């Protein structure tokens, strides 16, 4: 058996990090499946930024609090947040109270609105960085595409969008399928990606 998978209580093998809840459900139902609508893509960018330096488990446990705090991650609403909202969010114990990350989420909403105006949707922008071929799952923390995306987003004024964070975004949203070869969900993700095409 592969060292990059773990057998769950249901006898199914999953990626090593998905051995307990809430990670298991997130892994089985979201991670790697194609994400294409603006709100979901913006949420993922924000959550990956908040996760920087922390465990993904921390983010998952606070996810509903983040959604409540950031207006369901609706780009236009978050883009209008003011200093008063920053102060409110800094007092919200249900989220990560990091001024830089909070301000980055608001800034990035404004930049996302610009991207939507320019490209028509966040999907058209982010999926434009999909790599041309496969890679060995779990073999990379960045890619040429995540480096290029990060560089372009930073040039556009985005924050907390480094190459590693952008690669994590690509994994989470299906732009790359990083499920282990023996993971029970890998083929489901592949089928969903084929349907997207």
Write up this protein.
This protein has 197 residues and is mainly alpha-helical. Helix content is 54%, strand content 3%. It contains ten helices and two strands. The chain has a two-stranded antiparallel sheet. The chain is globular.
Task: State the helix count.
Answer: 10
* N-to-C order of helices and strands: EEHHHHHHHHHH
Average pLDDT, all residues: 95
Strand content: under 5%
Helix content percent band: 40-55%
Query: Oligomeric form of this entry?
Result: single chain
For the record, give the distance between the C-alpha atoms at the N and C termini, rounded to a whole number.
32 Å
Helix-strand category = mainly alpha
Q: Write out the strand line-up for the largest beta sheet, numbering strands in chain order.
A: 1-2
Features:
two-stranded antiparallel ribbon; 2 strands; globular; mainly alpha
Summary, kept brief:
The chain is mainly alpha-helical and 197 residues long. The protein is built from 10 helices and 2 strands, in the order ββαααααααααα. It starts with a strand and ends with a helix.
Secondary-structure topology with pairs:
Elements: E1 5-7, E2 13-15, H1 23-29, H2 38-51, H3 56-69, H4 75-79, H5 83-90, H6 99-119, H7 122-126, H8 144-155, H9 163-172, H10 186-196
Antiparallel strand pairs: 1-2
Helix pairs in contact: 2-3, 2-6, 2-9, 8-9
């Amino acid at each position: 058996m592969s060292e990059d998978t773990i057998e769950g209580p249901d006898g199914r093998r999953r990626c090593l990090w998905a051995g307990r809840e809430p990670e298991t459900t997130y892994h089985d139902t979201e991670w790697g499946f194609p994400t294409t609508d603006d709100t979901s893509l913006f949420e993922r960018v924000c959550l990956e930024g908040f996760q920087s330096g922390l465990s993904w488990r921390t983010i998952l446990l606070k996810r509903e609090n983040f959604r409540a705090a950031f207006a369901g991650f609706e780009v236009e609403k978050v883009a209008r947040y003011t200093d008063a909202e920053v102060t409110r969010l800094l007092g919200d114990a249900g989220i990560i109270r990091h001024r830089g990350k909070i301000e980055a989420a608001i800034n990035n909403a404004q930049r996302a609105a610009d991207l939507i105006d320019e490209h028509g949707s966040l999907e058209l922008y982010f999926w434009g960085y999909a790599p041309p071929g496969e890679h060995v799952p779990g073999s990379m923390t960045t890619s040429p595409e995540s480096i290029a995306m990060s560089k372009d987003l930073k040039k556009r004024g985005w924050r907390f969008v480094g190459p590693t964070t952008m690669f994590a975004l690509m994994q989470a949203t299906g732009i790359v399928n990083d499920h282990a070869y023996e993971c029970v969900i890998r083929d489901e993700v592949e089928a969903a990606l084929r349907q997207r095409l």
